[in-house]
Predict the structure.
Amino acid sequence: MVTRPTPTEAELRVDLAACLRLAARAGWNEAVANHFSAAVSEDGRKFLVNPRWKHFSRVRASDLLLVDADDPSTMNRPDAPDPTAWNIHGALHRRLPQARVALHLHPPYLTALAGLQDPRILPIDQTTARWHNRLAYDLSFGGIAHDSEEGERIAATFGNHEAVLMGNHGATTIGPSAAEAFDAMYHLERAARTMVLALSTGRPLAVMEEPLAETTAQGWETDRSERHAHFAEMKAILDAEDPSYAH
């Protein structure tokens, strides 16, 4: 595995702003809701988060708020983050040291699946098989996360997974870097799209047998460099078309 240097706060700001812009371009965000975060302290408890109710497509690196998950007075600040962002991401960064970057969204296909009685992503192709035994499911939706208990439950659901499909809600991905959290969300939404389209035919699904599904899932884990290359290419597109995100 390639060892990557720890990014500076300035680098994290640019990467998180890029994630926000790219999510807006993909149509993953919902109005001025949804929220992304990135840990800047070694223990993960000090983190960046997007400003309250600013559209993803307009957020710049310098707009991101620096907050402390252990400081409840954060919500008394004049620039306090969205309460749901504070409750969800505060819990993630307190509970999960591996969650250096966390992306919470209501993308169309994942949200459609989240509204089904059985929202499972089944291994019916390579991309859906990436999530075989590697996706957590939170089926205990308690309403909009205006209280800390909702965030704590979501954080506890992750276990050792990098993604949670949230029933009646949406999805959250985490990762050791912006590149890996973004790539996870990209492929999770792609997998959801494949499931929704396949289910819409009304025909039986060709679900892989367990050994093949597991072998395929393991194939995604052999070299994570592709995930970083994917994010680098997406940032290059932003740099060419609208570099304002990095300011």
Observations:
- The chain is about 40% helix and 15% strand.
